[in-house]
Structure formats: C-alpha cells, structure tokens
Design goal:
CATH superfamily: Winged helix-like DNA-binding domain superfamily/Winged helix DNA-binding domain
Number of domains: 1
Number of strands: 3
Strand order of the largest sheet: 1-3-2
Oligomer: single chain
Mean pLDDT: 89
Low-confidence stretches: none
Largest sheet: 3 strands, antiparallel
CATH class: Mainly Alpha
Shape: globular
Structural class: alpha+beta
Length: 118
C-alpha cells in the first residue's frame, strides 16, 4: 500500500478555492480550520488548503458579500470566526458551479477518455 506525499497532492486552479469554500459552507457555518479540514476530507485527502491561501480567500468572499463572519467558540473551546453563506453567496455558488462543470467538461474533451494514451 502506498501513501501519497505532499508533492503528489493536487494544486488548486486559480479561483477554485472560492468555489470550494462556498460549497463547504452550504452545509452550515464553519470556522476557517473546519473549512480547510472539510475540503481535505471531502476530496479524499487530495486537496490541502494552506492557511496562506484560505484566509485571504475568506476575506475576499466577505468583501464581495458572499460570506458573513461571526465570532463564536470552536469545538476545542477557542474563539474563532465562523463563516456563513449569504443569499448572494448561494447565488454565486450556483453560477461558479455551472462554470466549473463547463470548464471540466471542456478539459475532459481535450484530454480525451481515460486510458486513451498511447
């Protein structure tokens, strides 16, 4: 059985992190570390969201009105900002999901079927 090294992890495409954060928050409010953990777990440990990317993305989403932060207490009894998806954020999630699916389908057509390499 082999284990995956950090170098083998997939890197996120530009703009993908916003979509993943919005999608994660559809299930309810979450703090930053919880968002990162949820993305990692739901991707089968393929995606690792670094704090250096996560928190600027959360600030950007807040500035755009797509998420709303509120102070609360985390499961380990620490003060944390919990982010909630806004109505505008839900609308953006629908739009971004549709764009991502179109992009993935187009790339899939260019790359071709799996196992199609010579």
């Amino acid at each position: 059985m082999s284990t995956q090294t950090e170098k083998e992890r997939l890197e996120l495409l530009q703009g993908t992190l916003d979509l993943l954060i919005l999608r994660t928050l559809i299930f309810g409010p979450q703090h930053g570390q919880g968002i990162a953990r949820a993305i990692q777990e739901s991707s089968g440990d393929e995606l690792l969201v670094e704090h250096g990317a996560l928190y600027p993305a959360l600030q950007r989403l807040e500035q755009r009105g797509w998420v709303e932060p509120k102070w609360g207490t985390s499961e380990n009894n620490r003060r944390a900002r919990f982010y909630t998806l806004t109505r505008a954020g839900r609308k953006q999630l629908v739009s971004e999901t549709a764009k991502w699916r179109r992009l993935a389908a187009a790339i899939g057509r260019v790359v071709g079927p799996e196992g199609g390499e010579g």
